[in-house]
Write a structure and sequence with these properties.
265 residues, alpha+beta, 3-methyladenine DNA Glycosylase II, Chain A, domain 3, 2 domains, two-stranded antiparallel ribbon, 9 helices, elongated
C-alpha cells in the first residue's frame, strides 16, 4: 500500500465517523431538547438586571423563570421600575405589580451621637454590635462601620457625618442592605413618601437629648402642626400616614431637632 493511501484511508474513516456521530448528536439533541418558554426571555429583559437576589432567587434570570412558571410573584422584586413591572404584568396576564418603594436609614445620629467606647479593632457593624450592643450611646443608633455600604451591590449608600445615608439616585431598592443592618435601621417606605423620621429611639426626649443632638425629643410639634392629621405619635416617635400626607413640608420646617428629613429624589 502506497504512503498516500495509508494517509487518505484513516482520514476518510475519521471523517466518516465524525459525520455519523454528528448526525446522531443532532437527532438526539432535537429529540430530547427542552423547550424554553419565550416569555422567560421577554420578562428577564424587562427586569432591572440588578441580580441582587433580594427576591429570593439567584438572579434575574432565575426570577424570570419562576415568574413565568408561577412560582414567584412580581411584588417580590423591588428593583424593577413600575413601568417595567406593568409591561411584565401584561406578559404574565396579571395586574399585581406591588407598590413601589424607597429605602431610607431611620437614623440621623452619627457624629452627633455620643460613643460609649472607642472601637479600634477589626470588624463591621455586626461584630461591633456584639460588644455591649455597639459603640453608640443610643441603643438603636447607626454604628457607622459601613456594613450596609460594603454589601450594597450598587454603591448606593454612603457615610454622612458618621451615619449611613442612601443615595436615592443610585438606589434600585433591591433591599440587600436591609438584612445586613444589625440595628434594623434601614427601612422601606412607599415611593410617594417625601418626608421621613430619621430617628428610631423610643426613649423619652430628655434621655435622647442626653446622648444625641439629632434625635427626636418627643415634642410633638410636627403632630400638632400637621393640618392633614398625617402624623401620629407612637412609642415616643412620630409616625407618618403616607396616605394622608400631602408633602406640604410644615413638619419638616417646624421640627426643632431637624430629625424629619426630605428625600432627595
Amino acid at each position: 500500500m502506497s504512503v498516500a493511501l495509508q494517509i487518505i484511508i484513516p482520514l476518510a474513516l475519521l471523517t466518516g465517523l465524525a459525520l455519523v456521530f454528528s448526525i446522531i448528536i443532532a437527532i438526539f439533541s432535537k429529540k430530547f431538547a427542552v423547550e424554553v418558554n419565550p416569555k422567560i426571555e421577554l420578562v428577564e429583559n424587562l427586569l432591572s438586571g440588578a441580580n441582587c437576589g433580594a427576591c429570593g432567587y439567584a438572579g434575574c434570570s432565575a426570577f424570570a423563570k419562576a415568574l413565568v412558571e408561577g412560582d414567584a410573584t412580581l411584588p417580590s422584586c423591588s428593583a424593577t421600575s413600575k413601568e417595567s413591572k406593568e409591561e411584565i404584568a401584561k406578559i404574565l396576564g396579571s395586574d399585581d405589580i406591588g407598590e413601589s418603594t424607597v429605602v431610607i436609614v431611620a437614623c440621623n445620629g452619627g457624629n452627633s451621637c455620643q460613643n460609649k467606647y472607642s472601637y479600634q479593632g477589626y470588624g463591621d457593624c455586626a461584630s461591633v454590635e456584639l460588644l455591649a450592643g455597639g459603640s453608640k450611646a443610643c441603643p438603636v443608633g447607626c454604628i457607622g462601620m459601613s456594613k450596609c455600604i460594603m454589601e450594597c451591590p450598587h454603591h448606593a449608600i454612603e457615610l454622612n457625618e458618621g451615619h449611613a445615608m442612601v443615595k436615592q439616585e443610585a438606589c434600585v431598592q433591591c433591599g440587600v442592605c436591609i438584612s445586613h443592618c444589625p440595628k434594623k435601621l434601614i427601612k422601606r417606605l412607599p415611593s410617594k413618601a417625601i418626608y421621613y423620621i430619621a430617628c428610631s429611639s423610643e426613649d423619652r426626649g430628655k434621655e435622647v437629648r442626653s446622648y444625641c443632638k439629632n434625635g427626636c425629643i418627643g415634642c410633638r410639634i410636627c403632630v400638632k402642626n400637621c393640618k392633614e392629621n398625617a402624623l401620629s405619635f407612637e412609642n415616643n416617635l412620630p409616625v407618618f400616614d403616607y396616605d394622608k400626607c400631602t408633602a406640604c413640608g410644615v413638619c419638616f420646617e417646624k421640627c426643632p431637632a431637624k430629625c424629619i428629613k426630605k428625600l432627595d429624589i
